[in-house]
Amino acid sequence: MQWEFGTDLSYTNFSYSNLVLSKTNITSSADTIDASVAVTNSGSKAGKETVMLFLTQPYLSVSVPEVKQLKKFSKISLNPGESRAVTFTLTADDWSVYEP
């Protein structure tokens, strides 16, 4: 494989900073988690970036074939020097795995 999944080719550069989770502990299946990150176009040209959120399931009694799973994504357009916060809301469906 020449490029890892999710690697984007672009004429500009993007940087990610300020990852914030609304909570770090889940106490109920009704809980949600908001994950936000600031994305900045640090290059000299306008560009589009696909912001992706991957999850892993490290503590399962059954094997899940995916090491990391794409759960949410958003495509944004940024001018040079522009920053934008991208927020994803995760629910129990996003981190649940069926175990027979």
From TrEMBL:
Under catalytic activity, the entry for this protein gives:
Hydrolysis of terminal, non-reducing beta-D-glucosyl residues with release of beta-D-glucose
Q: Which EC numbers does the record give?
A: 3.2.1.21
Name all Fibronectin type III-like domain ranges.
49-100
The alphabetical list of record keywords is: Hydrolase
GO MF, one example:
beta-glucosidase activity
Q: Which Pfam families match?
A: Fn3-like (PF14310)
The record, for InterPro entries, names: Cellulose_deg_GH3, Fn3-like, Ig-like_fold
Q: Which family does it belong to?
A: Belongs to the glycosyl hydrolase 3 family.
What this protein is called in its record is beta-glucosidase
Native source organism of the sequence: Phytophthora lilii
